[in-house]
Amino acid sequence: MSAAAIRVVGVKKHFGGIVVAEDINLEFAPGEILGLIGPNGAGKTTLFNLISGIHAPDGGEIYLRDKPLGRMPVYKRARLGIARTWQHVRLFPTLSVLDNVLMGPREYPGTGQEARAMQTLERIGLAAARDKMPGALPFGQQKLVALARTLMNDGEVLLLDEPMAGVEGQVYETIKQVVRDEAAAGRAVCVVEHNVSFIRDLCTRAVFMFNGRIEQSGTVEELLASEKLAELYFGGMK
User: Fold this and answer.
1) Between the CA of residue 140 and those of 54, 99, 126, 129, 191, what are the distances in Å?
2) 1-81+159-170+186-238 has CATH 1.20.120.340 classification
């Protein structure tokens, strides 16, 4: 049996004539933080959509442990423990912060979840905001609420799509600590991120995508030292 929590094997996806995933082979394991980097339009979020079930692959297979996911719908993958955030927070604007977080458990609505939701809000420093509407919070705190909702899944796999975009200061540090803690607790974490400092500080490995393909993978330092990556991603500037 594979030690990987997620395995992506030969996955392909086209939208018409546009290639968004071409022969993608990738895996990440419990306790690992994998960084997924590349320019906008490289296919990073599409890969998350394929893993989480938003899109079905045209070819290849995705495995959770050794279970093929095939065309399993999103909600069933979530119930198996694949949780994700989005580039945009996607909170429910007419629900309170607490009620947004309570949408996250795998067996929604479940029982006895409010205490755990409050523990999660305390963990991110937003317990006092439980009754506020998301729109009343600064953007960074909204991202924390979205992260808290994802943590309520309590699954094995955590997919974070640009968690650091638009955040700074204490929110930035809180997200970093949460990601570290989740990996230390045995979650398999994959992060799409443009913040190179974040990738360098947290990720155990990194994968560079370009035009729907994995161009290079290795340690973070290996990728950051790559002339090819520097040309494609930084315009020749490392």
Assistant:
1) 26, 18, 11, 13, 17
2) no
Distance between CA 96 and CA 26 in Å, rounded?
A: 38
Amino acid at site 155 = G
Q: Which residue has the tokens 């997919």?
A: 159
Q: Are 101 and 133 in contact (CB under 8 A)?
A: no
The helix/strand/coil state of 144 is helix
Instruction: Give the other-Cβ count within 10 Å of 168's Cβ.
Output: 9
Rounded-to-integer distance, Cα 235 and Cα 34, Å? 24
Work out the burial of residue 226: count CB atoms within 10 Å of its CB; fewer than 13 is exposed, 13-18 middle, 19 or more buried: middle
Residue whose token pair is 């439980």: 130
Segment holding 229, helix H or strand E: helix 227-233
Task: Report yes or no: 113 and 152 within 8 Å, Cβ to Cβ.
Answer: yes
Of 121, 122, 147, 126, nearest to 137 by C-alpha is 126
Domain limits of the chain? 1-81+159-170+186-238, 90-154
The Cα–Cα gap between 99 and 96 comes to 5
Q: What is the DSSP letter of 156?
A: S
pTM over 0.90: yes
pLDDT, tens digit, for every residue of 209-223? 999 999 999 998 888
Which residue has better confidence, 2 or 62? 62
Residue-wise pLDDT for 10-43, tens only, equals 999 999 988 999 999 999 999 999 999 988 889 9
